[in-house]
Amino acid sequence: MRIIKTIFLIIAILYCVCCQNNNLYFLSPNTRARCIDGTQPGFYFNKGYGDGADKFFIFLDGGGRCEHYTLEGVLEACYQRASTILGSSNQWPLSFIFGQYFFYPSQNSVMYNWNQVFVRYCDGHLYQGSSEPINYKNMTMYFRGYDNMVELFNSLSDNFGLKQSSTVVLSGGSAGGVATLYWTKYLRNFLNPKIKVLAAPDSSFYPDINPMASLQAQVWDLITNNRRFLIQPSGCPYINDDANAYKCGYLQYITDLIPVPTFIIQSIYDEYTLRNKLNVNCITPTHGLQNCTSDEIARGVALQNETLKQLNIIKANKPDWGFWVISCILHCFFPNMASYSTGQYAVPQLSGNTVSKSLSTFIQVHTSNSTVDITQIPKLFDNVTYPNNVPCNGLY
C-alpha cells in the first residue's frame, strides 16, 4: 500500500512540475495583432525546467483556411469562421494541454522539459496577411496573420526569454505545418545566429493540384492591401507574377528560402489531400481504403507517386534535412499519442522508428556537437505501398 501511495505521489509531483502552467496569454491589444473578428490572438505557455529551461518548442495550430473558388466566397468563408475558435479568441479556454504524453521522457525523450508554446490559429490565411479592417455584411474582419506572428515572437522574446534560448524548434500541423515553412526564415533572422533553430512541419506537403493560381494572387492582395512583399517567406521569386504567385505557398517551390534544418513529417497518402483535393471520399473511420473504387485507389497511387517524387528531390538538395514519410492514411501525427510515439506508426513497420524517436534523433544530431554528422540524420521513407505497412493500414 505504501509503495502505491509513493508511486501516486511521484506522479502527482511530476504532473505539477510539467503541467502547472499551460495558461493562455493574449498578444498585446496595442499592436496590430488580431483574430478575424478583431479579438486578440494568443498562445498557451508551459515553462521549461532543468536542461530544457533555455529551449523552446513552438507549435502552430492547424485548421484549414478561408477557402473558395471565388474571392467573394473566400470572404464568406472567413465570415463563417469568425464566430468559431478558428476566427475568434472569445471561446478559447484559459488553460490547455497539448498532448499529455508530450511531458513524459518515455514518450518525448528530448523535448519533455522544454518551454512549450501552443499557438492558436485565428487569422484564416495560414498565418499570413496584414490588412486594414474589411467590412463584410455586419462584421469588420481583420486578416492579420503576419502581424500576429511578428507580435508572437516579440512577446516570447520580451516576456519569456526566447532571445536568450539555446535551441528553438518551430513546428505545427496541417495549416500550422505549412506556416512553419513560411516563418522559419523570419525566425532565423529574428534570433541571434548562435541560437540553433530547427523546424518540424507535420503534414505540410501538398502537391501542385488545382492551385486556383489567379485567385491566390487576388487573395494575397486582399490580405496584404496589395503589399505582397509581406507574404512569408520573404523573397519568393514568384510573388509578383499573378500566374505563379500561388507557388509561394508550396513547399516544393520555396525550399531554397527555408534556411534552417527541417524535419519533414508526412504521409504519402495524406488524408486531407485525398478527401479535399482528390475527392476520395471512401476512407473508413479507421483510415482504410477497403471501400474505395479502383478509380479512387488510382488517385491515391498518383498522390503517393507525386509526394515521393517531390520529397526525394528535396532530400537530394537538403542534406541536413530529416524525413519521416509513412505509407499510411492520416493527416497530422502530433496530436495523438498513437501516431506520435507508439509502434503502430513506424517507418519501416515494426522498426520502432516513430515520429517521436526520429524527431528526437534529428534534434540531438543538430544540437549535440558543433559539427553535424549528416549520416546520422533520420531520412526514413516507407518502401512499401498501401496497405503493406500493416499496423497502421486501417484494415483491422
Automatic annotation (TrEMBL):
GO terms for MF: hydrolase activity
Which keywords are on file for this protein? Signal
Identify this protein by name.
Pectinacetylesterase family protein
Q: Give the organism the record lists.
A: Tetrahymena thermophila (strain SB210)
**Classification via PANTHER family:** NOTUM-RELATED (PTHR21562)
What is the top-level taxon of the source organism? Eukaryota
Pfam families in alphabetical order: PAE (PF03283)
- Which InterPro entries would you find in this protein's record? AB_hydrolase_fold, PAE/NOTUM
Point out the signal peptide segment.
1-19
